[in-house]
Amino acid sequence: MEEKKIILTGDRPTGRLHLGHYVGSLRRRVELQESGEYDEIYILVADDQALTDNADNPGKIRDNIINVALDYLSAGLNPEKTTICIQSALPALHALTFYYMNMVTTARLSRNPTVKAEMQLRGFADEGLPAGFFTYPVSQTADITAFDATVVPVGEDQLPMLEQAREIVTRFNHTYGETLVMPKAMIPENEMQRRLPGVDGKAKMSKSLGNCIYLSDDAATVKKQVNGRMFTDPQHLRIEDPGHIEGNVVFTYLDAFSTQEDFAEFLPDYNNLEEMKEHYRRGGLGDGTCKKFLIKVLEKTLQPIREERAKWEKDIDAVYDILRQGTERAREKTDATLARVREAMRIDYFKDRTIVREWEKMLKEAKQ
Ligand code: TRP
Fold first, then answer.
1. H or E segment and range at residue 112
2. What CA–CA distance (Å, rounded) separates 268 from 149?
3. Are residues 272 and 328 in the same domain?
4. Which end of the chain is more exposed for a tag (fewer CB within 10 A), N or C?
5. Which residue, among 63, 90, 74, 115, has the nearest Cα to 8 in the 3D structure?
6. What is the pLDDT of residues 297-322, one digit of tens each?
7. Residue 54 CB: number of other CB atoms within 10 A?
8. Is the dihedral of CA 130, 135, 140, 146 positive or negative?
9. Is 184 left (phi over 0), alpha (psi -120 to 50) or beta?
10. Are residues 223 and 239 located together in one domain of the fold?
11. Ligand 1: distance of its center to the CA of 169 in Å?
12. CA of 137 to the centre of ligand 1 (A)
């Protein structure tokens, strides 16, 4: 097999994407897309995986496929360079999942820390654990290997999935011969990209906490979230008081988004973020000024995304066609992998009549 550089990653379509997704993965994907270093790039809208913990609410998944697609396109994923496709319309993934189930033990699946944590979060510990949810790492292995992915850009929480995928690949190749491409995780480079806190300072942006800034939020909502809800330093009561940077969400977001040019453009009192932080620590810099600057910085990212989204929203037919064509291309790719897998397992019975001759020979020998 020739070693191409192939990227596969994906998202569960359970809601609109927010700044956490942007900082943690979306921005990176666009960079990777523009780097020109990859032969093929696929982004999977993982609706089947989303169903493993939303089986009773398929409408939510159905609705959010378009939200996620709009977020992708408006953030800069270009369907000419990146194939966007829908998991449930790729039957090879289901077949591969079934074969890979035999390449992993339930004991091993039970040890997956991400699945364990998600189980707790969803109350499956008490209610009973859906087998589909329990085995979704196997299905994710199918996603990854079906595209011959060499590189899988994901958040840190997905490392156990990649570890499991690599084990399954090793086991499969050992059992049936070199067939599957070994994938590698690519995780965010620094702490800041790994986890952007919610505006309230809670560990993670989450819809149920209402602490998100969505890529599709309008300017007034962004302003309200920053001015009204963003956590700063509770001890910084008067402007003259010295302030803390650690745990101060305004500065965490500035770390993630602000550039030197932003200072020249919006806050020329400082040359860079370090100078601004220094003043805040010393005292004399008010939260209001910091938040005003942050809003401008965020808008520099969000406004173009918002404008792009508005354009796409006027032509949902076009988005549909992008998904349809992307899925078609993905179907060819994944079907080819399944064919290779079936051949390796020697279960490609109806490809030609090779097996008829084998059966005849075996039956004859049995009589002797
Ligand atoms: N489990 C991933 C998440 O929750 C989404 C996903 C599904 C994925 N299939 C994938 C990620 C394949 C990488 C590769 O974020």
1. none
2. 45
3. no
4. C
5. 90
6. 999 999 999 999 999 999 999 999 99
7. 19
8. negative
9. beta
10. yes
11. 17
12. 9
| 338-348: average pLDDT | 97
Residues 159-173 have pLDDT tens digits of 999 999 999 999 999
Same domain, residue pair 270 and 289 = yes
Torsion, Cα of 34, 40, 43, 49 (10° steps)? -150
Which residue puts its alpha carbon closest to atom 2 of ligand 1? 11
Atom 15 in ligand 1: residue holding the nearest Cα: 11
Asked if 174 and 261 sit in the same domain, the reply is no
| Residue at token pair 């302030």 | 243
What is d(CA 22, CA 301) in angstroms, rounded to the nearest whole number?
A: 10
**Whether residue 32 is found in the same domain as residue 174:** yes
DSSP state, 197? P
Summarize the confidence of residues 264-283 as an average pLDDT: 96
Q: Using CA atoms, how far apart are residues 341 and 144, in angstroms rounded to an integer? A: 14
Which residue's CA is the closest to the ligand 1 atom numbered 6?
A: 10
Give the domain range for residue 262.
Answer: 219-312
* Contact call for residues 333 and 146 (beta carbons, < 8 A): yes
Query: Best substitution site from 90, 158, 162, 333 to test ligand 1's pocket, by max atoms within 8 Å of Cβ?
Result: 158
CA distances from 24 to 57, 183, 191, 245 (A): 27, 20, 10, 21
Binned at pLDDT 50, 70 and 90, residue 152 comes out as very high
d(CA 68, CA 12): 9
Confidence band of 1 (pLDDT split at 50, 70, 90): low
Question: Which is it for strands 184-186 and 6-11: parallel, antiparallel or unpaired?
Answer: unpaired
